[in-house]
Amino acid sequence: MSDLPKISIITVVYNGAATIEDTVRSVLSQDYPSVEYIIIDGASKDDTLARLNPYRDRIAQLVSEPDKGIWDAMNKGLKRATGDVIGILNSDDVYAHSGVLSKIMQSFEANPMAEAVYGNLKYMDTSLTKVIRNWKSRAYDQTFFEYGEMPPHPTFFARRSLYDKIGYIDMNFRLGADYELTFRAMRVYQLPTYWVDECLVHMRIGGESNRSVKNIIDQHRLNMKAWTIHGLKVPLSFHYRKFLHRLKQFL
After folding, report:
1. pTM score
2. CA 89, CA 12: separation in Å to the nearest integer?
């Protein structure tokens, strides 16, 4: 068992008492035996830490301190991770089944050149019983970001070496840091990836970027900024194809 590659899973949370146990149980119920679970709490003021108490002996690292927001917390986790592969599962989300991490590690083993593996995601209602949006991704090619797509970030698992090559999350992207990170890895650095064509994560609907029309517009502008800061021109097709891609998820 000790010879197995290790996967680090990072959960960041702030005042997440209502959902954090669902997330933790989802990680701890995975059948892959070599998992380092890291939780970064932003000094929650609710019962989050009390809800975590029963699981502390199975949490490799639990940090509770003020941070500068979700991306800062994720960077803290990324820098603490010691696994060969790193994934991030938000405190509202759960893995789709107990074999997700095994599937990810098998995919890396079968595709040794891949620097990252990603899959599909379903947006769920708050009870995690009804599908609201079905985010089916696809294998990466040069039209991927041009057509307004990106890998669902909670399904994005990267070798630790990827972060050594491209750096960490850019905190200047308040609503689009996950887009910029995957864009940097896949489009700018052209690191090879592998797509798993199955649902890996169930995400509760209601994330910050989708909370209002203003946030959706701001996110779109930041997605365009991800192109320009890397010296790339935003393709005209990007604007309407991104809208169509999101609309398709509801159909």
Report:
1. 0.92
2. 8
